[in-house]
Write a structure and sequence with these properties.
heterodimer; A: 117 residues; mainly beta; seven-stranded mixed sheet; four-stranded antiparallel sheet; globular; B: 112 residues; six-stranded mixed sheet; five-stranded antiparallel sheet; 11 strands; 0% helix
């Protein structure tokens, strides 16, 4: 059972371009979370999705950022018109269908490191 | 709003010493607490998860305690090794399936 996959691992964009980050959750997991780690800072929650639904987007910047988790295929975090301040590591995590068990944990991918020139 | 703090921010110890890493959170109404390890340029590896009803969890040389009422958790690593050098993060969840709120991490260096 492969772990959470993220690609690309490294992404370089120029200011104004679009960045698309992909996350394939672990097999059987239907919950996906995106977090951002700015340089020298801790991880901050961005968005929580289930298949075809956004459950919690309270951590998403109001403009330029969007996320989806379609019925088929990976979850996508999209950043339009990137700026230098978007340079960060973006981590995806997945968890299985919840059954009320308090031991449910989030499994993290290796991250995508975005550099905006 | 939940805030998670980890002290110290960095720690350097000689090999063989026990490590004590602290995590505090402002809202005691948590569902669970997790400790993670992050190596430079890498993702997060879950070390231990403590349910809100538990007081501690153990895995090998690692032991994590939770005092929910005082908003504190401590991660103990016994007989540290150079391979334990990494950043250790604690994170709390308010409810099942909820987002994680992370502390800033403690960067650990174990010197041979």
């Amino acid at each position: 059972n492969a772990g959470v996959m993220q690609n690309p691992r490294h992404l370089v964009r120029r200011r104004g371009q679009e960045a698309r980050l992909r996350c394939s959750p672990m097999k059987g997991h239907s919950h996906v979370y995106w977090y951002r780690q700015l340089p020298e800072e801790g991880l901050k929650f961005m968005v929580y999705l289930q298949k075809e639904n956004i459950i919690d987007e309270s951590g998403m910047p109001k403009e330029r950022f969007s996320a989806e988790f379609p019925k088929e295929g990976p979850s996508i975090l999209r950043i339009q018109q990137v700026v230098r301040g978007d340079s960060a590591a973006y981590f995806c995590a997945s968890s299985p269908q919840l059954a009320g068990k308090s031991t449910d944990t989030q499994y993290f991918g290796p991250g995508t490191r975005l550099t905006v020139l | 709003k939940q805030e998670v703090t980890q002290i110290p921010a960095a720690l350097s110890v000689p090999e063989g010493e026990n490590l004590v890493l602290n995590c505090s959170f402002t809202d005691s109404a948590i569902y669970n607490l997790q400790w993670f390890r992050q190596d430079p340029g890498k993702g997060l590896t879950s070390l231990l998860l403590i349910q809100s009803s538990q007081r501690e969890q153990t895995s090998g040389r690692l032991n994590a305690s939770l005092d929910k009422s005082s908003g504190r958790s401590t991660l103990y690593i016994a007989a540290s090794q150079p391979g334990d050098s990494a950043t250790y993060l604690c994170a709390v969840a308010k409810a099942a399936g909820n987002k994680l709120t992370f502390g800033g991490g403690t960067r650990v260096l174990v010197k041979p």
